[in-house]
């Protein structure tokens, strides 16, 4: 009986260990330890805490949480990091400079609450006054209201989102980050094939605070060969 109890304790300890993951290479500034409620051979999900350590000082930096840190495991039973694939893999943690202020920020997956049941994220930006990562409602909304996590274009300093309605209507939008004001949409690329015969392609650019729009129509058979 004692042997069975000992084995059960070992199994229990092993399961707990499997629900903790270290991410050391996702960030130039932080290493992270993820603790999540439940894991199988393929994925993890549930309430989770993310403990961040400062790589330079090797000291504790901050603990953040997620109500549902849903993520898949790779072939080595580890989570990915910084992967954003439309309709495919999106990592539990995305380290990046989302507001282009030169400091690293963090997006933490929080379930599948974006469009069409896609990945959703809570986004935190570094606050130089508080010296902590603080929750950004605007950036979080951007990662919830569209098809998963937005992309970050550092060269042009724009955030890029993708949305759709069914098979036949898609739109790409780009946002600028205006210091002390927030996000401003500056570009849209819309593809509308709802009538089943032609694709109406509309490009909109914000120029001097005014929208400029151009529209072209293509036969569906020709457009989707491109």
In short:
The chain is mainly β. The protein is built from three helices and 15 strands. The strands form three sheets. It has a six-stranded antiparallel beta sheet. Strands 1, 2, 3, 4 and 5 form a five-stranded antiparallel beta sheet that branches.
Quick one: overall form? Answer: globular
Strand content: over 45%
Order of helices and strands: HEEEEEEEEEHEEEEEEH
For the largest sheet, list the strands in their spatial order.
10-11-12-13-14-15
Average the pLDDT over all residues and give the rounded result: 91
What structural class do you assign from the helix and strand content?
Answer: mainly beta
Radius of gyration over C-alpha positions, nearest whole angstrom = 21 Å
Helix amount, in percent?
10-25%
Give a count of the beta strands, DSSP E runs of length 2 or more: 15
Separation, N- and C-terminal Cα atoms: 69 Å
Number of helices: 3
Major sheet details: 6 strands, antiparallel
The low-confidence runs, each spanning 5 or more residues with pLDDT under 50, are 2-17
